[in-house]
Amino acid sequence: MKTSSPTLIFKKAPIVSLHGEPTLLFNGQQPSLLEALEIKKVRIFSECRSGFCGACKTKVLSGKVRYFTEPLAALEADECLPCCCVPDSDLNLDLSAKGADTPARAAPPTVFSKQALVD
């Protein structure tokens, strides 16, 4: 009797972008999207830890999130509460990347003149 080996399914870690600028790879090391954004120094207002639900409400430009706790605040279809969700796909949020620790951009190639190479 021949048995088949189990099929492994790998899901790509979602990329979280801010206004289209890739900012973080959500690899599940943080329990929530809010904590992952805070670690990257993204400016996001939240009072979740003080009991004010809905303060971190953020507009989702594209992508999907999955809630691990049902949100207490009323949300529109294009909004999420980062404190109680994780990305379920690549995600583009209506947040500024200004001041955030974003991945380094590739530096332009260095161009040398023939004279510099000879010296």
TrEMBL record:
InterPro entries: 2Fe-2S_ferredoxin-like_sf, 2Fe-2S_ferredoxin-type, 2Fe2S_fd_BS, Beta-grasp_dom_sf. SUPFAM superfamilies: 2Fe-2S ferredoxin-like. The keyword Nucleotide-binding does not apply. Pfam families: Fer2. Residues 28-87 form the 2Fe-2S ferredoxin-type domain. Keywords: Ubiquinone. This is 2Fe-2S ferredoxin-like protein. The lineage of its organism: Bacteria, Pseudomonadati, Pseudomonadota, Gammaproteobacteria, Alteromonadales.
